[in-house]
């Protein structure tokens, strides 16, 4: 319930911008709720790592981390948040960042592209309370941020990561959390723990015999020829189109001993070098600094997983092509958030209904005529699994896990691909009930509309609009805070790729609302024109007490050289 929450409305009129021009460093950010953690609790902030990533390909930052003992008993915290702050200047592509602790990937981020001269700074604050059982034990902490310094690429990323532990009290009780988090990862100890697929990634996982609930979290993002997977064309239409094949449908699957246990239709994260880099500064595309993850309820498989033997858990990404193939590559990983029974006796039970076909039902149609190639790929997916589970202490749980998802992607390559229109939507409902009680809920809708119109026949000068949303009610597990987010972003601009230096401009309008199951709220409406923030209104219980300050930039700032990555590998730099 929301309760009576004092609304703090902050507005930053454009006229006030001049006097806050204290620094010309561009402040980049992704719209997101501040961590919903008790600011009046005692806090212990510790530095986890500080590292400048220059030429860092294959050279992850690896540190030993020990939790603080001065904010109450270790593991009894009311919450944990991370502060990742980065500065950069120069020219550089966006890079992927993978945070791993105890071999569990718990945060996938990416870097805004820097500007030359004074450069950029960004801070992302992330609530990591759901990983409390990891942070309660000392262990190896890895940040993989593979950056390249080479001709034309001199931007380094100077990073610092702090963790803040919030002491619990009568007013702010210890945050509930999984008893155990098991990695479904490469288990590497010298780099981030995500696996590259295809081929499918598989790992033998042994689950404690007294496990009674298991919730799996999936991480997945397209890379290389799969970065713009939603722009790929079905093989039957790809012909000479300026894009890759294997179609635009992607399904991330988790399998247990070869049986599909749950799937996700991923949200399309556009990195800051994507299509029109100037549209993503200073406001990144939604998700670029904190890629969404997907939870599935693996509890129906507990009777199988608790036999004391290793089980083959696989992660892969498949398409709507006949052979389900995709290009190279996606990075995937996962973790199992496990609840144990108080007794040490094994859990028993059986799966009673298993309706989880290997693949979604898909359809591809299209028409080719004149100078156009138009096509539509649709997919629907239903999973229904039931199980009866008996804990060692005798508690019975009837589990029903169902997923119902829809996907549609229409692309029109008009006038010899001089105009490229994309309309995609992925939506669906995940629901699990345990003894009839709603336990895992995910209701989502991710519409994505893109218009790329060439201004020159070589396609090196173009104008783009991206209109996309992230609308999601998510309750990942009974011990993880649930939330409802609605986010709408319309961004676009003009861009020219030139050997003498890329140039362009951009606008961004964002409307974001957040409410969680504790009643915390946050709303933000923020717009930018080129590198200037033109309006910013924040309200809700989580809104900062001080209005954020942004520098103002003269038109000269536009003469920077963001690195563009285009669908189909066109243009580039
Ligand atoms: C985040 O860390 C940066 C760098 O240490 C610091 O300047 C900033 O104040 C921190 N922000 C918050 C909200 O703690
Ligand atoms: C810009 O980056 C260079 C290294 O690439 C560094 O030496 C310089 O201090 C940076 N300048 C600023 C203003 O941060
Ligand atoms: C890292 O992993 C390798 C291979 O699994 C192993 O041989 C090595 O001992 C590990 N190193 C540490 C510090 O755990
Ligand atoms: C899992 O372990 C079994 C033996 O228990 C072995 O045959 C199999 O190759 C292993 N699978 C993986 C993916 O490591
Ligand atoms: C694990 O399951 C995957 C997916 O079904 C399969 O491709 C792989 O061969 C299996 N691995 C082993 C060792 O059984
Ligand atoms: C492709 O779609 C566009 C609308 O976006 C339409 O005007 C055109 O006629 C279509 N071409 C074909 C061959 O279907
Ligand atoms: C695509 O963008 C171009 C350039 O802004 C515009 O002229 C055209 O009307 C847009 N097309 C659609 C279907 O919105
Ligand atoms: C971006 O540049 C284009 C082409 O010069 C121009 O038409 C447009 O008005 C500019 N937009 C902004 C927001 O500056
Ligand atoms: C930013 O705003 C200032 C003040 O309104 C204006 O002078 C400047 O031209 C703007 N810069 C850009 C890049 O649009």
TrEMBL record:
InterPro entries: PNGase_A (IPR021102), PNGaseA_N (IPR056948). Residues 34-355 form the Peptide N-acetyl-beta-D-glucosaminyl asparaginase amidase A N-terminal domain. Residues 534-573 are annotated as: Disordered. This is Peptide N-acetyl-beta-D-glucosaminyl asparaginase amidase A-domain-containing protein. The lineage of its organism: Eukaryota, Fungi, Dikarya, Basidiomycota, Agaricomycotina.
